[in-house]
Amino acid sequence: MQILIQRVARARVLVHGSETGAIGHGLLALLCAERGDTEALCPRLLQRLLGLRVFADDAGRMNRSVQDVGGGVLIVSQFTLAADTTSGRRPSFSAAAPPEEGKRLYEHFVALARAAHPCVATGEFGADMQIELLADGPVTMTLRTPTE
Prior knowledge:
Layout: E1 2-15, E2 18-23, E3 26-32, H1 42-51, E4 55-56, E5 62-64, H2 66-69, E6 72-77, H3 99-116, E7 120-122, E8 129-144
């Protein structure tokens, strides 16, 4: 499982022109479930997401988490993060979890996030989504679950 994180001043997701989720200051989290991932990976990955110190403290250093600053988290499914681009010009997505498994893991992760953090918004799994964001920094990084 992996998450591409962007610190944002604001972000929102549109599906067929309708907003499905929006946040102000916080983190846009693009979540990818990969083959072999299980629900057991979700709590640790969520803990890392919510505790990651990427927001400035009073001295201007990245020393505060999204929880510390009361920011929002916008979680969007993003199977293309599993792309293998090592050969050819067409990416392979064989490392991504099958759609039904990916949806189950995405929904489990979102449920855990909503139980742990007061401001969680989402996209719509499997939909053609448009994401509008105002990057803050920019600060962009990837969190991954350990491979065994």
